[in-house]
Design goal:
The complex is a heterodimer. Chain A contains no helices and eleven strands. Chain A is mainly β. In chain A, 0% of the residues lie in helices and 50% in strands. In chain A, β7 and β8 form a beta hairpin. The N and C termini of chain A lie far apart (36 Å). Chain B is mainly β. Chain B starts with a strand and ends with a strand. Chain B is globular and about 40 Å long. In chain B, the strands form two sheets. In chain B, strands 2, 4, 5, 6, 9, 10 and 11 form a seven-stranded mixed beta sheet that branches. In chain B, strands 1-3-8-7 form a four-stranded antiparallel beta sheet, with no helix packed on it. Classes of the chains: A mainly beta, B mainly beta. At the A-B interface, β5 and β10 of A face β5 and β10 of B.
Amino acid sequence: EIVLTQSPATLSLSPGERVTLSCRASQSLSNFLAWFQQKPGQAPRLLIYDVSKRATGIPGRFSGSGAGTDFTLTISSLEPEDFAVYYCQQRSNWPPTFGGGTKVEIK
Amino acid sequence: QVQLVESGGGVVQPGGSLRLSCEASGFTFTDSGMHWVRQAPGKGLEWVAFIRYDENIKYYADSVKGRFTISRDNSKNTLYLQMNSLRPEDTAVYYCAKDGLCGGACISRLFDYWGQGTLVTVSS
């Protein structure tokens, strides 16, 4: 199965800062990489799919980039509601797999 | 709007069984593939199982193969997960999720909508 490695595990930041999260795959994903946001006690929410396509209703401050095995989620300016855990997920092969997550916490 | 509502979670002893349900509304359930995804307490996300719209294709994670069975009743817009021979490591919140981007025979492996989850605890 494809292993996804996210870094860093935790980021401590202030509102208004720019955030860059990394996801590295054990083999090429083409462009089949998605990002999810999860807040405590809530289900994950789809943010980005196929590397750079924003899901319905997702604000423009969220963007994705990358290719092959290295991918990035960027939040251009952190809003208070963006403090959460972020997961990447590949849909290139069965089984679909997730990264271990990056927690973005308030500094 | 899309709604997925899970039920059926609870506390069960090791070796026991439980059946989860997921009632869907707000989209064409009969044309949509569906998944179960779980999350152990304080841990990450793990895909569990998939069923195509017509039940003709099913996939399972190795960790549950032979113990869990995914099924659906399209007349009731409901997805199920029958869990047998439960182990402590099956303790998790179980989410149902819709397979996104395409319908019918197409399988995207993208989870575009999720339910709120139901907690399963396997403990003696």
